[in-house]
Specification:
about 260 residues, mainly alpha, two-stranded antiparallel ribbon, about 0% strand
């Protein structure tokens, strides 16, 4: 086949080869991860539905956290009512409800681990996918967030230990519940129905059946001291320790919402 080199003084080259080169260059540029890669409309819609699903899971487990906390609060209120209902009422309900609240705390720590699992996935999609879209930068895969998320779907694992979750829920909610229980128990022994007159009388009020009062008080001291130690130890190992948290002088989101209203 003869080569057509010149026509009307111009040099022509085959367009097929040039098109193939351009396609190869565009494919290499889009796959090297050095610049933002745009998803098509179908892929963006699929990721949006994925985000909705992860957010729903996170919300469900957050609701379960509230449920166990409500159980602990209601149980403590019921024990307080029974303990101070009459002069002859025993402080035993406060002791029993303390053990019950400890069970609720362990259940909530397990639930918090799953809540944290789903929350981290939604946070990744918010910061790595929706965030750049809001700024008009497109979707940037250079840092490999999509690969990390893909591996997490293939091999899911929880991101917080059981003890750290236990300490976090203890510091946020259950420390106040245990403090109220301990204060109410001490008040029952010391001033209700009348002020205690001697150490022997205090030990007599603290006694539970055949169990001497001194053993009951020591068990209570060990019980509450263990929660304090756990809260302090897990606080030193908490996730995000050492990260600075900026305190903004003005709330730009609130100002924008006010202007939009």
């Amino acid at each position: 086949m003869p080569n057509v080199r010149e026509k009307n003084g111009f040099d022509f080259k085959p367009k097929v080869a040039l098109t193939a080169v351009q396609e190869d260059e565009s494919m290499s540029d889009s796959n090297d991860g050095s610049r933002p890669v745009a998803f098509n409309a179908a892929e963006i819609g699929a990721l949006a539905h994925l985000y909705r699903g992860e957010l729903y899971r996170s919300t469900v487990w957050r609701t379960r956290l509230d449920a166990t906390t409500n159980w602990a609060v209601v149980s403590t209120g019921l024990a307080l009512s029974l303990t101070f209902s009459s002069e002859t009422a025993s402080p035993l309900p406060l002791v029993l409800v303390g053990l019950l609240v400890a069970v609720f705390l362990n259940i909530e720590a397990r639930r918090y681990r799953f809540f944290d699992f789903w929350r981290i996935r939604t946070h990744i999609l918010e910061t790595q996918f929706f965030g750049p879209l809001l700024l008009g930068h497109g979707v940037d895969l250079a840092n490999g967030w999509n690969q990390v998320l893909h591996r997490d779907y293939l091999q899911p694992r929880l991101h917080i230990t059981y003890l750290d979750a236990l300490g976090r829920r203890l510091r946020k909610n259950y420390s106040w519940i245990f403090t109220i229980q301990a204060a109410a128990y001490a008040g029952k022994l010391l001033i209700h129905p009348t002020a205690v007159q001697s150490l022997a009388q205090l030990l007599q009020r603290a006694a539970i059946g055949p169990l001497p009062g001194v053993y009951v008080l020591l068990a209570g001291l060990v019980f509450h001291s263990s929660w304090v130690i756990l809260a302090l130890l897990t606080r030193q190992a908490r996730r995000g320790r050492g990260l600075a948290r900026l305190r903004l002088t003005e709330d730009q989101v609130l100002d924008l919402a006010r202007r939009a209203a």
